[in-house]
Amino acid sequence: MAEVSESNTGQDEKRRRRSRKGEARRTEILSAAMQRFAEDGYQNSAIGDVARDVGLSLPGLLHHFPTKVDLLLAILDKRDLECESFIGPYRSDLRGLLKGMVEVFRRNAEMIEVVRAFAILNAESLMKGHPAKAWFLDRATQLQNDIAATFDQAVTDGSIDGKIDGKAMAAELIAVMDGLQMLWLRDPARFDMVGGLEAYISRLLASLGLEG
Amino acid sequence: MAEVSESNTGQDEKRRRRSRKGEARRTEILSAAMQRFAEDGYQNSAIGDVARDVGLSLPGLLHHFPTKVDLLLAILDKRDLECESFIGPYRSDLRGLLKGMVEVFRRNAEMIEVVRAFAILNAESLMKGHPAKAWFLDRATQLQNDIAATFDQAVTDGSIDGKIDGKAMAAELIAVMDGLQMLWLRDPARFDMVGGLEAYISRLLASLGLEG
DNA sequence: GTCTATATCTTGATAGAC
DNA sequence: GTCTATCAAGATATAGAC
After folding, report:
1. What is the pTM of this model?
2. What contacts B103, CB < 8 A, 6 or more positions away?
3. Nearest CA to CA, how far is B33 from chain A (Å)?
4. Contacts with A168 from chain B: Cβ below 8 Å
5. What is the CATH number for A111?
6. What is the DSSP string of B134-164?
7. Within a domain: residue B2?
8. What residues of A are in contact with residue B175 (Cβ under 8 Å)?
9. Splitting chain A (212 residues) into consecutive groups of 10 residues, what average pLDDT does each group show?
């Protein structure tokens, strides 16, 4: 606890030790694996196929990620890094947060494979003993807490009605986003995920007295 | 088309031919399989385990359901029958429909294994080539159309604002229900799925001018 | 870092007896 | 209707050479 750099040393060291070529391979593999997981889920994907996708034999792949679970966790870790600053910029302002979520959806609509992979993994992680169970639970909890805090602060501010329950509103928001994503994934051509979220949020803002 | 009894003859005939004992076994198997699917999903469940659950060998089970897919489809068919009159009673009245959905949720909250099985299968069916893909798509489409029709009729009635888009509202409703269910499944002890839906729907009714 | 070869396990499904 | 025996396929993972 004395210094910030004390935690996480192992990871950095490992990364430093790896060669440039090895690092590139790892990236290739992660990308290919995500595409596979997006189609068949984690449990039903064969890492041998991933290996072939990047022109490697199975033991060749296992040199970089010793087990299938390691590969999955590496994908989740990467996502963690990418999304770390997801909520941050919007955290303070409720209106900004809600508008920001629409922007996230708009961006997601352009990366269907990634969204599909994480939606499938998310659902899959409900299954008993799934290796990504804890990760998705933690992530949902943290997201809910962040959103709830913004709602609660808006109540404290007096900018919205004191009756509303931040935790519950956050849960509802997450539910709507997850649900809309699933509808979109089932029929991407016909369902307008972004429009669906916009409609929900603008009605929400109106009912909170924050319209405009 | 001349007589009502003309359709569906094959199924009835098959059912008539089966012995009482065989029918009982089938029911046992379907129930056991659903529990397995609720924990591990379809793809990751071994029908050999299902067989043992009901005290049967694998070939013994395969006598009743020749393939794993047959077993899955039998479960879905059964659900179809059980849910056929799900929307029916409420179809005409929008307020009734929304209140009815809360009731369905209340009932579902008492049957977590069944809900879990169908939520998992629903998510799983997003995967490429999944045998239940068509079933869940059809079901979602039909549900959306039914709900949308009720919204549209309320618009025609003049009981709600003419600006609202029935199809979109129906999609949102389905998204909320699916999303809340997933949050509940991830942490059944702490998350109040019924309360969540009630809150959403009462806010929706208020914004439609139908509160009370 | 990457490969060949192989061990081991699990699964869905079949054949054929009772 | 149920079983034993068996098969073929596909998966993860390891050993050891290059």
Report:
1. 0.91
2. none
3. 15
4. 195-196, 199
5. 1.10.357
6. HHHHHHHHHHHHHHHHHHHHHHHHTSS-TT-
7. no
8. 175-176, 178-180, 182-183, 196
9. 46 66 93 97 97 98 98 94 69 90 95 95 94 95 94 95 95 98 96 98 94 71
